[in-house]
Batch of 4 targets.
Target 1
Amino acid sequence: MTIDLNFYATLVALVGVLLLGRWVISKSKFLQDYNIPEPVVGGIIIAIGIFCLLKYSGIKFSFNDSLREPLMLAFYASIGLSADFTSLRKGGRILFIFLMCVALLLFLQNITGIFIAKLMGINPLIGLLAGSITMSGGHGTGASWAEIFKANPYNLNAGLEIALACATFGLIAGGLIGGPISHYLIRKYHLQTISHLKEESPPQGFEKPEKERLITAYSFVQSLALIALALLFGTLLSEYFKSSSFTLPTFVWCLFIGAILRNLLSLTKIHQVFDREVSVIGNVSLSLFLAFALMTINLSELVALALPMFAILTIQVILMVAFAIFITFRFCGKDYDAAVLAAGHCGFGLGATPTAMANIQTITQHYGMSHIAFIIVPLVGAFFIDIINAIIISTTLQLPFF
């Protein structure tokens, strides 16, 4: 028996997934400590329930998917609208060095994943999904590329299940290894913060919330209009270049258009983008998109791929540990700030920006403040990594493996 849920019933189900996830997280210290997203928790619980109903009673659910793509595109448009390139000056030379380290890791994650997949005789696309797409991209990027890989010419039907499993694994691993690596570096090299020499230095960036603007109906419409423009021109460009040799996924075009809009408006001083409001719209879109993606995954397709996926992900964690110690830490100055940046890199190199922020907050609360880390990590993790990752993934797909 199949139960068809229309648009409104599907929307109720999506919101229900988020509310369920929030309630479960409120009861679990583990889920709170490792910043597991609400749609991941709620979505997996519902997916297990749907799987059990299908297996033991033959009841199947069919959801209306008309919201899925617009929600995904709105999330990436919000990332682009948050990309204020003038903020690059705040981080100075260290920011550019850190960006180069991030870009190098993205490339190595993809090559590692593809190599191990080929070695184990499985589809190299699985290795790519277990690379920078989910390790540095997280659930949103993983689910987005999985949709691309489901279609021709890739036809990877289990892509969504693989992507979300990898992203969840990476999220937990990123929170587990960041703190210990930073502790190790600080103790091995006897590093000390210089914050006690500059007690008069005021908090910066995410160390202290700035004065907030009120979200009003008019300002919300303005932010929504910018996202709508990014979606419109992004989809038009995607359609225009579809038949050419220069092709990018639609969500990448929306991200780029969002970034262009943001910086053109800043340059011409026509309009100041309301970052917090854009972030709210983007986060809501991502949460609802992930809720749909997770509650509709086919868990049975993961069983056959469990062992090779675990092998690839374990090697990715080892790569992240080695990279943070021998590359990120060394090239960023081999000082206390570099040790904190290494912890942050572990956070979004395997998981997400909230995990990176939790890592550096834990370290700085114990050893002392690192102003530069609280400027650079949010800047890179919030949007620059997604832009760089989109370019590197698209470039990797041009390799002969595919």
Note: The longest helix spans residues 88-119.
Target 2
Amino acid sequence: MVSAGALVWISLRPLLRLVMCVTGGYAITKADIFPRVAAQGAGQIALNITIPCLMFSKMVPAFTSDNIGALGPLLLICVIYQALSVGIAWLTKQFFWVPHRFRYGILVAGGWANYGDIPTAVIMSITGASPFNGDSDQNLSVAYISVFILYYMMTFFPMGGNKVIAWDFKGPDVEPEEVKESVRLRRQFIFRGWPRALRQALLCRCQAHDEPDAENQTDEKMPSKTDLAADDDNDIHHHPRHGRHVSFSEETSSTAVLTDVDFTSAPPTEKLHSPQPSQTATQTLPYDGCGSRPLTPIAEDHPPSPSPVRRRWQKFCITARGVLKSLLTPASITILISFPIALIKPLKALFVEVDGYYMPSAPDGEPPLAFVTDFAEFMGAASVPLGLICLGSALARLNVPRSQWPHLPLGAIFSLAVGRMLLMPVFGVLVCEGLVNAGVISRDDKVLRFVCILFSCLPTATTQVFVTQVYSGTGSAEHLSAFLIPQYILMFLSMTALSAYTLQMLF
């Protein structure tokens, strides 16, 4: 049994290392020696080289036929966490005003968390030491993390999660006062309006039961045909109707308007409107040789438009091409390749030693492709520090002037921060323990339980900053900056507490 002080220190130590790395990236950015171009280049190196190497070096030795069944619970946890987080963001949007250019971005900020450098740094540090089993549990934890990363990449890019951010910048702008008034009316209806509406609905329903039969009432009040004819005759001779407007369908290409017409007079003369200028330029009304009615207009020759089936097929091809292009990233490809290599013993034995399977070794006594694993481990070791430095650089560029804080949506900012960093960990513990009691998650797999619970306490991904800068057209993400800063401040307190509680619960 580990003491409470030891649990707190075990939980706090990886966060201190994380803070030091993030502070380094923050400092060199503020000192103007790590410009934006360099940060973007470092991010590309981390995304396309170091992270794939880290995933490969950990997944291949960690996954076996015994623990591959954890994929199902991990994907289920991903879906549940995303649904809960989006629900928290949606409720925040309903009760507090959010800038018009962030009305959809807040849903993305709730639904997609930082599944990369932060949990990897913390979990690798905790599972690599006591009370866990050292390197074996560390490799297994990173293998489990890869499932979260793969889910993030598939839902955010190929499935269009990033396109939701673009919806914020479509349409005209709306003043904050109008948004505030709309939210105020919504809150008023939620807290005071719905009881009145429910009471009125019940009253109408009671009145409907008390009324006589609808058919009998119709028979009593329905006038006869003779009365209708007499009324129409009186209306025609004594009450002329004015202002009647009669419009024909667009297919007739003409409109007749009858204004101030007395129906006692002779019928008006029919009058054909002249065609529109565009129609006279492209259409003619040929007559047959006998001067009879004009024939059907001859339309100008145009190239045949594709059929609806062909248009749908073209749209599907474009969408599928975009999905494949987004999915075929180095990190996604590496993760997808690592699964069969880890599960097929002849392939796995080429990279690492496999118990019970013979594979001819290289001259140094290692598996034939062990040098690939060595390279992946060497490059993957740079993934976490490089990612944390880029995170510190991104936070250093989040500029929210103090003079603007009174004008910011503070209610939505702090509600989302509390929901993600304080409320979601509670949901995470309840969901994971419920799945353990239901037999979905193995009670003996403490690494899986620890990873699943810790992933409930993550702030919004900084990737949204870059995507927002692209879609905004101005290169700014001022609304998102204010929502990120409180989350990352609360993260150090909530993650320490959650890690200590989880370790106490597991051990």
Note: The domain at 4-170+331-506 is CATH 1.20.1530 (Na+/H+ antiporter like fold).
Target 3
Amino acid sequence: MSSPSPRIAIIGGGPAGLTTALLLHKRSIPFTIFELRQKPTDEELAKPSGMLDLHDESGLAAIKECGLFNDFLKLIGECSEAQRVADKDGNILYRDEGENSSRPEISRHALTKLLVSHLPAAQITWGRKLLAATSSTTASGHTETELDFGANGKETFDLVIGADGAWSSVRNLLTGVKPHYEGRQNITLTIREVTKKYPHLAELVGTGSFSALGNRHGVMSQRGPQDSARIYMFFTMVDEHFAATAGLANQTAVAARERVLSDPALIGTWGPVIKELVTVACEEETTDNPGGVVDIRALYVLPVDHSWEHRAGATVIGDAAHLMGPWAGEGVNLAMWDSLLLAHAIIKAHETAGQDAAAFQRALDPLVEAFEVDMAARSKEKAEESKKNGETMFGEDGATAFVKFFDIFGTPAE
């Protein structure tokens, strides 16, 4: 027997899950979010994190429909929309001050805090890891999905929304397709108070985004909270398990630095300007996190044309549906666009069916199927763009190729 009122579970408390939840909350539609992480403290959310540029048709549209645009505007400005591109020796080949962009940046932590602050605390369950999801059909044709949280028990829902990222458990209900290695490795480091401590490096990377490219690798920066520069190193590597085979896994950033800077297969042949940026970032990361291991990870993607046969009672959004590389800046925007459109479908079905779970599912089923078809088409276009951009940026002379992209909008550096 289904419950008299639709039971909705959202798995994952990232931008996709939180945005969906807030849009439903505004229409008084009940739900429960299950998030793997423990609830972050205000201190944790104040720390530097990745910056997200939101686009008018997707991320910003969702923020506006949530009624948070004015609050959002108060949280931007830590990273400008300025762009700089350099070669592997640190020579600036292109710069602009953001005049060619209208995509404001917000830190991932700030976006999380903004969304969570407008949701009822009782509807977010923190520290719950989903181990498995299984669905069954009742004699009346109603589909129920059971969520197994291990020691935390099992719960049953009429609709499960998988916003649970790359290695989604909910996706396993819909398809056996798994992410595959993209061919690149990423190391993330942070320099806090960069302007005060290292004004020459702050001048190098600028107030927004910075990309030094060459030899199929990249050293990039984004400015962020606490006057930080978030440093990302990307290495094109055939070996999916590079961190372990290179001896970098379980090392501090300072310990890993020697291999990164000396190995000609990494950035051993790069110029002293970029090597200094990496050296300082490794030192600052180790100072901030004494004993902590360097954040190095392989990048994964789902197939560009990923789709699945629709199944009643469950769907996936965000990275769970269309994991792609970060080279088009579309990940969070697609995720929030998914949230916006899926919420529209849920709201419409809820208005049609009222509080009857079976009627709700019957009304929702064709709407979600249409949503999934549309999502697959949207995400394929962006995944193709991301793949193409990655090939451009991480070619042998990625800097020159990337500058050509910006030259149609702005002025090369003199």
Note: The mean pLDDT is 94.
Target 4
Amino acid sequence: MTGSPSRVYVARLAGLPVYDPNGDQVGKIRDVVAMMRQGGQPPRVLGLVVEVFTRRRIFLPMTRVTSVDVGHVITTGLLNMRRFEQRTTEVLVLGELLDRTVTIADTGATAVVFDMAMEQWRTRDWMLTKVAVREGSKRFRRRGQTHVLDWTDVSGFTQVEEGQGATHILAAFESMRAADLAGVLHDLSAKRRKEIAAALDDERLADVLEELPEDIQVEILAGLDTERAADVLEEMSPDDAADLVAELPTDTAERLLTLMEPEEAEDVRRLLTYEEHTAGGLMTSEPVILPADATVADALAHVRNADLSPALAAMIYVCRPPLETPTGRFIGIGHIQRLLREPPSELVSAVLDTDLDGLRPDDSLHTVSKYLATYNLVAAPVLDDEGRLLGAVTVDDVLDHLLPDDWREHDHPDQPDQPDQPEPQEVDHDAT
């Protein structure tokens, strides 16, 4: 394997791009797959978990890796596009081995794993040979000593550890988007998901939960203490929080809503009154709402909010006071693309689109989809019978409900596995 360093630290591989021989990027590394061996022998590295551009995670055997270099990995270009599924004999190095508590053989001291190194032996096999650990400090606010030890100099990897930390795995994935981190959590065990969720701050966990299937959302929320679960729900967008609360047992849902801030809970309760596959059930109650005397500069300042999804940021809604949903009388919508062409001092009321009738909260998913398609919109207002704005439906929420419930987890017949991709000769990723 030309161009490969003799030792590669695994945590530094997280997120690295993977290129084919022509220099085209095929994906990013999400984890390293290894197989534990008996007798304390170093684990054999079987391959890499690579996320390709469809957000699917596939397995890339080390036999298909031609170069591991600073900043990138190069493959032979031959990929098996089947979704990666971990086998019982395999371990995910980043997801499962980082943050493990191990015992140092020479001293008997305990330490936490913060990285590992793999090396290619003369047999051309890659092995996990080094373990980077940090001892616990006995002094107040002092970090313990760090060591890079041989695999054979530590023990404890074969034992089940309760309360495993997540500091170092989160450091490896720090720059990852919430949707990508959700994909990482999805592929881990329930135990490991619980531990990582405990280490995330409320806002980050809320963002990640919004990208996970509902059954895993419920599982993670159930693993939190009640007060923290309520805090996390407050950080979620009201429509996503309502969808999650709707999946909980009635008594649990009511207890969490009682612990939430009254204004946040009120938004969620209101959304829970609508049927799931209606405009009311799909909408968010927090679009960008401005008064009629707001300027174009005001509108552009509001849509710069990094917490807004692209669909919500594409449109503003102008209403009479009050400006919180349900608002005063709805006046019209302002398309950001149009506002960008206007002087910053121009009033938004002068450039509003007032011709579109809004959706009604009981409109069906089919009606909502047809409305967005007919008018080429990525979002649409939802109005009550008195012409007040209740919220907005975005195209991403519609797609979530049009796709199968398990679209995040599985491939479907109407989403083919790139038939023009040649099938590799070596696809058995636990074969020696």
Note: The longest strand covers residues 25-35.
